[in-house]
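Encode chain A's predicted structure.
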Amino acid sequence: MFSLTWLSYASYYLTRKNLSVAKKTIEQELGISRGALGWIDTGYLAAYAAGQFIFGRVADRAGARRVLVAGMVATAACSWWFGLSSRVAVMALAFGINGLVQSTGWSANVKTMTQWFGPERRGVVMGAWSTCYQVGSLVANPVCTAFLVTLGWRAAFLYPPLEVVAVALLLAAFLPRPPAGEALQTSPAQTPPPAPAPRAAGAVLRRPLLWVMGASYFFMKLIRYVLLFWLPYYMQDALAYSKALAGNLPLAFEAGGAVGSLTIGWLSDRAFRGQRLRVGLGALVGLAIALPAYGALSGRGVVANAASLAAVGFLLFGPDSLLSATAAQDLGGKSEAGTAAGVINGLGSIGAVFSGALAAWCSARFGWGALYALLGGGAALSAAILLPYALRRPA
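Encoded structure for chain A:
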């Protein structure tokens, strides 16, 4: 179950990151402007945000397996549609629908994980599991870049979806049914008891903490998607890197993020005794410093670029996985984890909606350094939103 759900969400990136690595080539070959490419990002992310509020609830009601299999087949179809298109309006429509069906992945997989692991080790388990979206992005970059460099940009949209369909078939055939009863919990003294699972349908939506976490996640996800969708473009445009180097160097971001998820998840269980928001707050303060530092250091050579980018990934993905997965499970419990994850990720995705237009506008008008400084301010706001709840004494 762990392996299949991990592979499921990692696979979604093969039909998400292809636009990131192909963006500069599409601009050059089809004459699509930077602003238009930013609006394609915006349409994708707006649909993705809307879908989070829908499919989290659907996963709680209809079951995760059905949602995941249908979503993975649909995102593959959208990628093929985009890769066979040349008109900007058609490409925007294809990638917008792709955003909607991609939103099936997170809440349904988080829902499945909630049914198998208890809260006393949730930080460690979900820290490890959440590497799916760092490793997925890390693998998607060189895979899509290889097709881009050898066969052209369309190949990056036509061949990677084959793996997504294969994983969907594996889920349909082999994803285990949830265990009977609650997941086992051991050593309850290690961790303060989580909020009890809401019994009435939709009760989690009335908890203020859900909306506070979603508001903080708004800024985290805006930052993450600026970097996911624009780092290869930035490295070609501002640093004059080759297509291959610009497509592969962002791997440092995901590699640092994988280490951050594991480390910060472990700390939230062991050092902070389940107080997820406190460890997340510390990482966000560090991120507010690391982002403008990256803008200053990235032009000082490949090593400085990779090292500072890995630090940004470490400090971003750690609190990202805590809020969107581990804390969502704590809050929603077994019955409404999908809803909680969907709302937090949905509010975060509203922030991501602005990432494409923000990156295109700010980089063109004020320069890339100003963009990274602005993102650092977003990290500070994310920390400030969490601060009152993070400082509360556990009940």
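Residues 302-353 form the longest helix (52 residues).
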